[in-house]
Amino acid sequence: MSRLVRLVGAIVVLGVVAGSGWWLVGRGAAATPQATSADPATATGRQTAAVERKTLTVKETGAGTLGFADTYDALGGLSGILTWTVPVGTVVTAGHRLYETNGKDRTSLMYGARPAWRPLGPGVSDGADVRQLEENLKRLGYTRKGDKINGHWDTDTTAAVKRWQRKAGLPVDGRVDLGEVIFLPEALRVTEIVAPLGSMVGQGGPVLSGTSNRRVVSLKLDAADRSLVEVGKPVQVELPDGSIVPGKVSSISKVANTATDERGNTTSTVAVTFALDDPTAAGDLDQASVTVSIVRSSRENVLAVPVNALLALREGGYAVEVVDNGGSGSGAAPSASPSAAGSAGASAAPGTRTHLVRVEPGLFDNGNVEITATGLQAGDLVVVPS
Prior knowledge:
Elements: E1 4-6, H1 9-15, E2 24-29, E3 47-50, E4 52-68, E5 71-75, E6 80-85, E7 91-92, E8 97-101, E9 105-111, H2 128-139, H3 155-168, E10 181-184, E11 188-193, E12 200-201, E13 206-211, E14 215-222, E15 234-238, E16 244-260, E17 266-276, E18 288-306, E19 311-313, E20 318-323, E21 347-349, E22 352-365, E23 368-372, E24 381-384
């Protein structure tokens, strides 16, 4: 029986990093398989590939959804008949109106973590809502040098409010009645008009709903693979048109969701979101399916050969068949380990000699494998199947 067995796909699969049955739909790689090249053994149909020094990377890929981060409701605060709203698709930023009641009363957006809970104006007590309003007025350019942003309503605050009201076409009274301003953490991208025109609003129900204007990719990650991601870790996102854009992990849920399918199989996942480095790269796509690739492991500046150059030794371990220098029987002395010495120096073709070199396989990368060996260097030729 021959001492060697040429590795086939089943053996290669066993060599790939274990434990990768997570959110995968496929596997990518940073390096492409090395194409075989002709050498003196080609006359008999045998081909070779050069040993290369390169970086090998194993990536996990998963199916994600491109959309927008977070959802918000713009609640009714001004009582009356709804007579106008911004159109769906509008991105409303601080200082701009959201909707109108009774043909004249307007509700505007401001940025803040706390909702409005009282009218604001001269004589109001200090509070976080006053400070939120002051911060918005300063951001919008309606305050003056020396105005204090401290949560205390003074004459400077009244003057800044009037400047904003005049610019926005609102009644200029220096006060902000409850419902005239809705505080949300960020700009609102309107996705739905919840209350129809002509309906009565003002009881706290939603008038508009929407999302932020931040592009994100969301993905459900098997909870067992939580350690594969961390906030800030770089990823690659393949868009529906095939283009690949870089991104980073932006958030990871601390709560796992468990679901059971119709066969009784239970899965536990955590929600992970990824931010694109260039949000404009995704255009106007929303709820589009994308593929996220994240590096599982990487090895830099290692020797690598095509996976099918590996030979399984009967006594255990692996080797590669190296073409002797010169290719005419006068090459270097065989450098196979003693366990493979019986096959060292076997002819690949008349006048061409080869020898075995024992190797230790490392990282597998989409048709390439890292090897550690004594007596091999970049540029050496190894025999591969034709």
